[in-house]
UniProtKB/TrEMBL annotation:
TM stretches of this protein: none
Boundaries of every HTH cro/C1-type domain copy: 16-70
Record's protein name: XRE family transcriptional regulator
Gene3D superfamilies registered for this protein in UniProt: lambda repressor-like DNA-binding domains
InterPro entries for the chain: Cro/C1-type_HTH, Lambda_DNA-bd_dom_sf
Stretches assigned to coiled coil: none
Signal peptide coordinates: none
Database matches in SMART domains: HTH_XRE (SM00530)
Length: 81
């Protein structure tokens, strides 16, 4: 069983994936908008790597969602279990 931090990272990644789906944003669009490499974006969204804060903020900005909202939704998802 993982730590709360691991669960939170997974919930953040899941919320970013959901936001990408809601807004119909392609991976290539995220790469172009953030300046991150395609492999980094895929690793972050698939929870294969922890998302550094600057990258998280860039991803949120590119998806048109506030980082605060993503954090709140991730926390709610963990609480609901």
């Amino acid at each position: 069983m993982g730590t709360y931090g691991d669960a939170f990272n997974a919930a953040i990644a899941a919320e970013l994936r959901a936001e990408r789906g809601r807004n119909k944003v392609t991976i290539d669009s995220l790469v172009a908008a953030t300046g991150l490499s395609k492999s980094a974006v895929l690793n972050y969204l698939n929870n294969k790597r922890d998302i550094p804060t600057p990258a998280f903020v860039e991803l949120c900005h590119a998806l048109g969602v506030s980082p605060k909202l993503v954090f709140e939704r991730a926390e709610e998802a963990i609480e609901q279990g």
